[in-house]
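Hi everyone, sorry if this is the wrong subforum. Our group has a chain we'd like a structural model of before ordering constructs, and none of us has done structure prediction before. Sequence below.
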Amino acid sequence: MLPSPSSSAPTLPAQAPFHVMTKPIGSRCNLDCSYCFYLEKEKLYTDAGGMRMKPEVLETYVRDYIAAQPGPTVNFAWQGGEPTLLGVEFFRTAVALQAKYAQGKTIENAFQTNGVLLDDEWGAFLYAERFLVGISIDGPAALHDAYRVDKGGKPTFARVMAGMQVLKRHKVEFNTLTTVHRKNSRQALEVYRFLREVSSGYMQFIPIVERDSGSNDNGLWLAPPPDHEDAAALDSQVTEWSVRPSEYGQFLITIFDEWIQRDVGRIFIQQFDAALANWMGAPAGVCIFSENCGRALAVEHNGDLYSCDHYVYPRYKLGNLMNTSLATLVDSPEQQAFGRAKSATLPRYCRECPVRFACHGECPKHRFLKTPAGEPGLNYLCAGYKKFFTHIDSPMKTMAALIAQKRAPSGIMQIPRGHWMPSFISS
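Answer:
Right subforum, don't worry. Here is the predicted structure as tokens:
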């Protein structure tokens, strides 16, 4: 049975498309990954109601999210914490609400999970409703289990692989999300070849960069994104599991060099897709490599809307969708200023960088270093990205030229390396 409709009026469309990462169970999770920046966010929500999206919040969110999207396709992204803790019935209700409020729009669902709780009931549901599932896995067992453990500190690799087998058995479309950290960053080919062998056709490699704040603000010990007016924020220490900049850059280069020889058009990697788009002068499709941000937000289980998934801190809360329409919050002056700040706060060192068009300073969350001239706002991963984007300049130009000629970019695999378009980016 569907919940009764909420009393607030439906929202109007937003000024431009936007994306919301939905946290229907907040930060609650059945794992205890060492590097997870989100687990401690439970300290922000200590009310007796628990971290489970209530029926009236779910209905208001589904209705308003559909109505607020100006385009014909609406993509819901369910994440956590761990969304499978809610049970299949919660998502059956969500799908029914989507059908109720679709108004002719195409509804798509993406679902990010650690895979541990997936069983045949989940598999049948995810296939029937055509969910795209993201599996969080950090490589083969030794690398995955280095940090991804359960609440008892036990390894999880075998259980994740069992969950992946459920998806394969039920023919559920899935991709993989791999965090790149201190332990697996030096094993790029081992990670890539493993993911390829388990039939991941689309991969995301997310760098782990977290800092110890040295304090306990609101019960949170990981440092919030830097405020350029707060000099103390720049002095926070990077955690022991954070990837080193040079090693992240080399990780991407090593995988790219194998991918460009044999897997173009067969394996899709988020960073490579975004880079090719930027080389072609098209939208990157990923907020971190876009000139500005602000159109990728996060909603908590109680309806609180935040500027970004990485900015779930009190100062970045825009409001609650039970009190204010979603489109109003998304298009608010505060959120627009948040998005523009990405380009507005780039230091001169970045503005004059030859690969700025591909990087755009990456995520502002990581901009806590100082430039060689002492200006704040340099991205922690700058050295790695500069190395990577310089390395791929020639093949990216070649693939962009192939596309301009209405040929498949996979044609680069038939072109000898020495015949790629020349690179003009200096290292």
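For your construct planning: The CA atoms of residues 13 and 69 lie 5 Å apart. The longest helix spans residues 245-262.
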